[in-house]
Design goal:
alpha+beta; 5-stranded antiparallel β-sheet; disordered N terminus; 5 strands; about 35% helix
Length: about 150
């Protein structure tokens, strides 16, 4: 593998920063369920452009995209578990001039600045997951009645 290909593969690797957990109680006909949401912000880097010869401007840039990886574990009143993992793509994006390897720290700061602690994004993910969670709880409740 060439040096450039090695750098490109390394630059495409994702990093993840954990988010504060979010908990909520969900009323359901089978009883109140408790849902726990945890997540992490993953940043994908992609090296684009090229280094130009002396006297010409370089087009080398690091394009990045942040996504939120969410894990949900819900416990029903009867003690059954309903878990789910999903990803919300493109919660933030941008680019920086130069090599990705040299910009990782600055990109992480850019993402942190744009997203804050990320808790509001996890709350929105929990709201978006509500219908799926209720469907899972209905499925678990109907399975418990069939036993």
């Amino acid at each position: 593998m060439t040096l450039f290909a090695t750098l490109a593969v390394a630059a495409a690797a994702a990093t993840a920063t954990p988010l504060p957990a979010h908990s909520l109680s969900v009323p359901h006909s089978s009883g109140t369920a408790k849902a726990e949401y945890s997540g992490a912000i993953g940043i994908q880097h992609k090296q684009v452009g090229a280094v130009a010869p002396a006297g010409r401007p370089s087009t080398l840039r690091c394009v990045w995209t942040a996504k939120m990886e969410v894990n949900r574990t819900a416990t029903t009143a009867a003690g059954a578990l309903a878990s789910r993992s999903f990803v919300q793509d493109n919660v933030a994006n941008g680019s920086r001039p130069g090599w990705c390897s040299a910009s990782r720290g600055a990109i992480a700061r850019d993402v942190a600045e744009r997203l804050g602690d990320g808790s509001q994004h996890l709350v929105k993910a929990a709201e978006a997951d509500r219908s799926v969670l209720l469907t899972d709880l209905d499925r678990l409740a109907s399975g418990a009645r069939a036993d």
